[in-house]
């Protein structure tokens, strides 16, 4: 097939997140399909921005559309979204002619790309697929407190309804969305669940050595004989790192150190919150290739969430897949419709937003023999290899595309 995937934030290993479009597309090209990704030249989640134009990455044809720079979630980001969607709309005829897609996938985090994707699909006589990363407009309403009557929310609501009505297939990364989508008009026979995952070959080779500052921070904790709690990923409000910092303050007299690697809107505030905590170390992001080495050097990996009703539909975090694939014992601070940590037995789950519960969980894991933590980690790794590798997920996605 010829597959056209529209994802505003698509990236690559060299450019940074989002990785999912790249990994799915690479598997599809390996199966003999032709894949074109249409993405914006500016994205807040990428480490490096590409130049506008056409670029071939590992057999995948990327079309980078020129969009303005932005930061935060205000008017500048809305303008960036508008510029991207309007260019896909205006260039629909050319995309339909040049790519001649059999399938068009609308895959940006927000749902408004369904309109230009539908336009391309209709011009090309292609199947239309809508991929759900987050449930917009519920996400900005429940996570950011936006009013349901806000014009942007009304626009998202309209786009979501359009997608559930007109898409030939809907693919969701979230596993517990059936009742919600049915209430919004989706025929559930068109719904498939394809979660996030990992690439097995990324974990087969010996990882490159850690950057010197990261290696030094880990070695300093090891010399003191302390249990090392690690975090690798974005530092934003949804990640509940303030709860981890509050827990670290309660544990400052215990032999537990914290090494946090990453960046994000909340990093500066979190560092201020951690002022005076000698056993909490913040470090800049590391290349994706170094993540396995970092995770192999810690004792417990932390992942946390806010306590919000939205997670009743399930969660699909990339970093948790990395933690599990690395064989880490995981402390999961969450209340959600699904919990891979509990399902796989790879760690402990505690209530979200509760520093004392995080303390108790960390102390329990720290008290376990190292061999028992390793056994937890191996259960997580086996779970991911069975259910969450991109060869498996890409095949599942293709099955969803082709279902009648």
How would you sum up this structure in a few lines?
With 404 residues, this protein is of the alpha/beta class. It has 16 helices and 14 strands.
Structure write-up:
This is Glycosyltransferase family 4 protein. InterPro entries: Glyco_trans_4-like_N. It holds the Pfam family Glyco_trans_1_4. The protein is α/β, with parallel strands linked by helices and about 400 residues long. The chain contains 16 helices and 14 strands. The protein folds into 2 domains: about 1-195 and about 390-400, Glycogen Phosphorylase B (Rossmann fold, 3-Layer(aba) Sandwich); about 200-385, Rossmann fold (3-Layer(aba) Sandwich), CATH 3.40.50.2000. The chain has an 8-stranded mixed β-sheet with strand order 3-4-2-1-5-6-7-8, with helices on both faces. Strands 11-10-9-12-13-14 form a 6-stranded parallel β-sheet, sandwiched between helices. It is globular, with a radius of gyration of 21 Å.
CATH H-level superfamily title of the largest domain = Glycogen Phosphorylase B
Number of strands: 14
Strand coverage percent: 15-25%
Question: What's the architecture of the largest domain in CATH terms?
Answer: 3-Layer(aba) Sandwich
- Give the overall average pLDDT: 95
Helix count, per DSSP?
16
Measured as a percent range, the helix fraction is: 40-55%
* Overall spatial form: globular
State the order of secondary-structure elements, H for helix, E for strand: EHEEEHHEHEHHEHEHEHEHEHEHEHEHHH
**What is the makeup of the main sheet?**
8 strands, mixed
N-C termini distance: 16 Å
CATH class of the largest domain: Alpha Beta
Taken together, the total number of domains comes to 2
Pfam family, one: Glyco_trans_4_4
InterPro entries: Glyco_trans_4-like_N
Protein name: Glycosyltransferase family 4 protein
Domain Glycosyltransferase subfamily 4-like N-terminal: 16-197
């Amino acid at each position: 097939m010829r597959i056209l995937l529209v994802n505003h934030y698509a990236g690559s290993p060299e450019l940074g997140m989002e990785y999912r479009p790249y990994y799915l597309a690479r598997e599809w090209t390996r199966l003999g399909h032709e894949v074109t990704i249409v993405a914006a030249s500016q994205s807040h989640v990428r480490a490096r921005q590409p130049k506008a134009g056409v670029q071939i990455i590992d057999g995948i044809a990327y079309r980078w559309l020129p969009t303005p720079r932005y930061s935060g979630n205000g008017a500048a980001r809305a303008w960036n979204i508008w510029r991207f969607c309007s260019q896909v709309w205006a260039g629909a005829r050319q995309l339909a002619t040049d790519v001649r897609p059999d399938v068009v996938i609308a895959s940006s985090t927000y749902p408004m790309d369904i309109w230009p994707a539908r336009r391309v699909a209709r011009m090309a006589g292609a199947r239309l697929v809508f991929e759900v990363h987050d449930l917009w407009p519920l996400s900005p309403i429940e996570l950011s407190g936006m009013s349901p009557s806000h014009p942007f929310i009304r626009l998202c609501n309209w786009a979501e309804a359009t997608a559930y009505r007109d898409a030939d297939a809907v693919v969701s990364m979230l596993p517990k969305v059936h009742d919600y989508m049915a209430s919004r008009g989706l025929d559930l026979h068109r719904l498939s669940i394809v979660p996030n995952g990992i690439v097995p070959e990324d974990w087969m080779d010996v990882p490159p050595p850690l950057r010197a500052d990261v290696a030094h921070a880990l070695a300093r904790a090891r010399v003191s004989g302390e249990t090392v709690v690690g975090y690798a990923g974005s530092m934003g409000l949804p990640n509940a790192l303030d709860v981890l910092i509050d827990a670290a303050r309660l544990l400052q007299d215990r032999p537990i150190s914290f090494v946090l690697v990453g960046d994000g809107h909340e990093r500066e505030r979190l560092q201020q919150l951690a002022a005076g905590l000698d056993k909490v170390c913040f470090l800049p992001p590391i290349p994706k290739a170094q993540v396995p080495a970092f995770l192999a050097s810690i004792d417990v990996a932390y992942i946390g969430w806010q306590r919000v009703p939205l997670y009743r539909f399930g969660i699909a975090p990339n970093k948790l897949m990395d933690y599990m694939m690395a064989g880490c014992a995981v402390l999961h601070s969450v209340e959600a419709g699904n919990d891979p940590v509990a399902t796989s037995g790879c760690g402990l789950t505690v209530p979200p937003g509760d520093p004392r519960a995080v303390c108790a969980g960390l102390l329990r894991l720290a008290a376990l023999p190292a061999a028992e933590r390793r056994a937890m980690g191996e259960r997580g790794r086996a779970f991911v290899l069975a259910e969450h590798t991109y060869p498996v997920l890409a095949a599942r996605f293709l099955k969803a595309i082709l279902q009648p």
